């Protein structure tokens, strides 16, 4: 089993990237603590491209002071072993000092889907941090494709628009959410769930599916969401939002009922914040 090349400096990254020549390159950006969802992205990347880069960087600019930057799971040795098994060609693992050197003073301020009133309403710092670091990763790694999971659906839409608006000349590919057998979306933060919380957590996805089925069967969106919010709260979650939005723009639904719909949810269970989404 060949270990992937590991680059920690821009000079090392440039050398490794140059060795790919004219080969098609796919990038899978991650914050490490890899699980089966990340590895599904890697496998899809391998189908799309001749060379695969995985970045591992816990990005401090997308965490607010009260959030879990210090405690975010870090499993670097295990991550490298998993990526070796998947045949990844290059791992880009810069330090915060490499990504944000002294004097760094530029930020990207995304709008559009980044101002949809979903994650941004609860984490107003988040998408600026994501957009800035993702733009840097794209410019550093120069991929032809970049793959993101649909679990972070608003993020996927923000990154897609970022690449288009800045003419970054790559294709963003969304990959369906990978789930546990009971429906819970895989997430590095699932490690925070206690045993009793883990037993309750699948209610989130189950409720989303019921809401989507109700809307598809002709129930009003407002009625389906009202039932869903009640079920989620009754299960013990603290609900941040359960919303139905245009699946392309994340704008509120129009009155004509002629647009693709995505249901999106975020809720807290103990100290763990879970997000999920489904199409209708």
What would you note in describing this structure?
It is a single chain. With 280 residues, the protein is α/β, with parallel strands linked by helices. It folds into two domains: 5-175, HUPs (Rossmann fold, 3-Layer(aba) Sandwich), CATH 3.40.50; 188-279, 2-Layer Sandwich (Pantoate--beta-alanine Ligase, Chain: A,domain 2), CATH 3.30.1300. It contains ten helices and nine strands. The protein has helices at residues 10-18, 36-48, 76-85, 96-99, 119-122, 126-141, 153-165, 195-200, 203-216, 221-234, and strands at 5-7, 25-30, 51-56, 90-92, 145-149, 171-175, 238-246, 261-269, 272-279. A six-stranded parallel beta sheet has the order 1-4-3-2-5-6, with helices on both faces. Helix 6 packs across helix 7. It is globular. It starts with a strand and ends with a strand. The mean pLDDT is 96.
List descriptors.
single chain, 280 residues, alpha/beta, Rossmann fold, Pantoate--beta-alanine Ligase, Chain: A,domain 2, 10 helices
């Amino acid at each position: 089993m060949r270990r992937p090349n590991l680059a920690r400096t821009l000079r090392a990254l440039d050398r490794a990237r140059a060795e790919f020549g004219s080969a098609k390159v796919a990038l899978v950006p991650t914050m490490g603590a890899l699980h089966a969802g990340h590895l599904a992205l890697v496998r899809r990347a391998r189908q799309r491209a001749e060379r695969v880069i995985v970045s591992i960087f816990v990005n401090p600019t997308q965490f607010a002071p009260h959030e879990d930057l210090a405690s975010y799971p870090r499993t670097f040795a295990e991550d490298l072993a998993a990526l070796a098994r998947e045949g990844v060609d290059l791992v880009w693992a810069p330090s915060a000092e490499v990504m944000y050197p002294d004097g760094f003073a530029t930020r990207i301020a995304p709008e559009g889907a980044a101002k949809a009133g979903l994650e941004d309403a609860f984490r107003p710092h988040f998408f600026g941090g994501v957009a800035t670091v993702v733009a840097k990763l794209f410019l550093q790694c120069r991929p032809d494709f970049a793959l993101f999971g649909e679990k972070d659906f608003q993020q996927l839409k923000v990154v897609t628009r970022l690449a288009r608006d800045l003419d970054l000349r790559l294709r963003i590919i969304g990959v369906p959410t990978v789930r546990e057998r009971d429906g819970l979306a895989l997430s590095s933060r699932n490690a925070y769930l206690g045993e009793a919380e883990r037993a309750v957590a699948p209610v989130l996805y189950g409720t989303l599916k019921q809401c989507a089925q109700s809307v598809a069967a002709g129930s009003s969106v407002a009625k389906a969401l009202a039932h869903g919010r009640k079920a989620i709260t009754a299960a013990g979650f603290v609900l941040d939002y359960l919303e139905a939005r245009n699946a392309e723009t994340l704008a509120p639904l129009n009155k004509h009922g002629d647009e693709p719909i995505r249901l999106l949810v975020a809720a807290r269970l103990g100290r763990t914040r879970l997000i999920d989404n489904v199409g209708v």
